[in-house]
Every structure is written in C-alpha cells, then in structure tokens.
Structure prediction request, 461 residues.
Amino acid sequence: MVKLAKNPIPHELLCALLESPHESIILVDKEGIVRYISHAAAKFYQVDDQDIVGSHIHKLNPQSRLPEVIKTGRAEAGSVLRMKGKERIIARIPLRDAEGNVVGAFAKLVFWHMKRAKELVRQTEVLEERLTYYEKELQNLYSSRYDLQLVVGESPPIQDARRVATQAAQSDLSLLITGETGTGKDLFAHSVHRMSSRHDKPFVKVNCGAIPQELFESELFGYEAGAFTGASQKGKPGKFELADGGTIFLDEIGEMPLAMQVKLLRVIQEQEVERLGATKPLKLDFRVIAATNRNLKVMLKGGTFRQDLYYRLNIFHLHTPPLREIRRDIPRMAYQILSSLRTGKRVLPAKISPEVMQLLMSYDWPGNVRELRNILERAAAVAGGEALQEEHLPPDFLENLSHAFRGSGAPPNLKRARELAEKEAIKQALEYTGGNRTQAAELLGIHRTGVHQKMKKYGLE
Prediction:
C-alpha cells in the first residue's frame, strides 16, 4: 500500500504526471463513472474530455471491460483494444482503498502502435532463441566428450578398469582415477559421467595443476561483486556452481595445495559452497571424480595430501594401466588411433606392417597412449596412403627403442632390436589367442606358415 507524504503533492506535479504526452489514462469510480480522462486518451477516442467526465465508461466505449475489472478485482494486462479501425495494447488495473476494497479502476495505454508491440514480441523471441542457443553451447562446452566404447583392449587390467567404471556410473559416490600420464584417465572420467544418471547435466573439468595457488578458491567457489581488488563488478560463479546437477572432474588432484584440500573436503561433505565475499553458502548437487598420476599413498606419508580427503575421494578406485602392462592390446589401439585420424580429405594408411607392429609392441611407452598417438600421427602423415613401414617412424622413436634394447644388454643395432621385437610380438600374440597359430598369424598380419617358421627360429615351439 502506497503511503502519501505528510505534505500534499503539489497540484501541478499531479497534473504533469497525469497529462504526460506519453501516457493515455482513463480513471473510473466503482460505479464505472469516468472521473478523469487524459488529453492523450481523449484524442485517441476523438472526444472532448469535458463531455465524457461524469458519464459512464460505456458511453465512451460500449465494450469497455473496466466494470468487469471492478467487479472481479483482477487486473488485465496486455489486452488488445480495437477502436475505430485501430489496435492498441492496454492494461486495466483495479484501485483499492486502505482496507483493500475496490473503489474504482483505471485503464492505461501500454503501446500506441501494434507495430511496436509486435517488434517487442519479435525481439523477445530472438532473445529466447539466443538464450536457448547459448544454453546448448554451454551444455556442449560442459558435457562429456567420450564414452566407454573408445576403451579398446581385452587384457585383464583393461577389463577391470571397464568393470569399475560401469559400477561407479551406477552410483553418485566419489571416484578416484589413478594412472600414469597418457593412460586415459580423462577418457574414463568422461565415460563414467556419460553412463550416469547425470549424463544430461554439466561435466565441468578443473585442471588443479594449471591454477595459480592464489586463485584456487575464487576459481572453485566463485566470488561476489567487489570481493577483492580486481574482482568483476558482477561477481563470478565458481566451477562447483557450474557443475550443479552434474559432475565436477578434479584432474591432477595431487597438485592441489594443502590449505585448499581442507576447504575442498568441507565442500564435498556438505555439498555447499560459499563464494568469496558472500554471507551465506549455496546448497548444490554435484558428483566428484578426481584423477592423478601421482602416488597419493606416498603423499599421505609425507604429509602433502590429507588422509581424510583421500578417503572421501577414494570410495570407488579405478586404475588405468600403462601400455607396457597391456602389450597385447597395442594392435587394437594402434588401428583405432589410425581410424580416428581419418578426417576430411586426408589420405592415411589403412594398414600397419608386421615389422612396425612388432616394434610398437616391444617398446615400453613411457608416455603411454598419448605417446602412441603422437608416433602414429607423425608416421601416418609421412606414409600418406601406404602401409606404415619402419622408415615412416620418427627417428627419435627408433633411437629410444634402440637405447631400450641396449639397456637390456642387447646389441645397439636395429636388426637385433627387430628380432627381439618380433619374438616378443609372437609371444604376445600366442598368449592372446591361447596358442591358436592361425589367429595369431591374423593378428600379426603374416601367414600361418610364417608364424610356425618364426616360432621354430626363436625356440617358441
């Protein structure tokens, strides 16, 4: 209820308000008698205001709904008024006294021209379309990119990782992914989110190793306007707010400062964050997946990682194996990588020669799948449409392979390296196929007779 000031409003101010050239107003009492009509309204109806004041509103407009508004006490906004071939958008508002009784009503012109109303509708529709577009773009930005189908391989460590990922996806409990650099921790994190009930909600990745220590809190939890020097005047939501309803992926969690680990633990336990400069926390709903290539158990003993946070994150534990532990899966991975490189009009090899495959299976791959992809991408670019041969492999790779054999006591020449690689590849193929020479030959890309001859040569019979 509006309260008038002690001193009455000057008459000229009231007149200036009611007689604004931009306003068109008609005021009636509870009986529907016109008590006031502005010059703009009189001009629209093409009447003399002196002739209308004191008359019933139906004399001015037989279809007027002001009596209905007085009767129901409900406002009508955005109605179309058609009068003398013209259309206008008006609002009808009931007037009440201090006790809430309806004592009259007034009609006010909202738009003089329908074109303006239609333009506003058009602009609103454009804004709604843009909002929908940006929501989709944001969803694409914060959505999972990979699924478990991209995880190839049948070795026991890979099967174990897939099993844990499937189990974790059926729960909202925290998941800790550990493994060396380049073993696909990111891929598994995306896959678990995509298989979960939160798959249509945001997937927000945070690289804990790339955030400066002094910005950790504002990046994760956000801040209010003017919370600190240089802060945006609009404030900023943190990564946890962006992940509300979905999953937050804390990559390289082992790089998080000890002081931030305490705050992170509280946020995970309470499921709420407090922006910098805020006076009360925000209740959120998120699932946490963390990953690291560091040995957190060693860090626990050294006091650089909190034990309580470790147990909070490590409810489900998924380990991504290095390539040297799953050598028999390298052929499948290599061909999958080659297939993924075929985009656009690029001409790339469709086959890897047996000699090259043997070298790939014999290398220890300190960079794991990421290094394998790098090697194959470079080799494929050199080979063009031909099958990958040894001469297409990067010199650094061949040199590293030679050093590896040299460190094991083998002569530092590629011929011996190839022989050792060939022997190892045949052993792996036979193990994988359960001793089936035909299947091993198919896997190695050579004839069954060739497998038999090489088995005899290397004493593998």
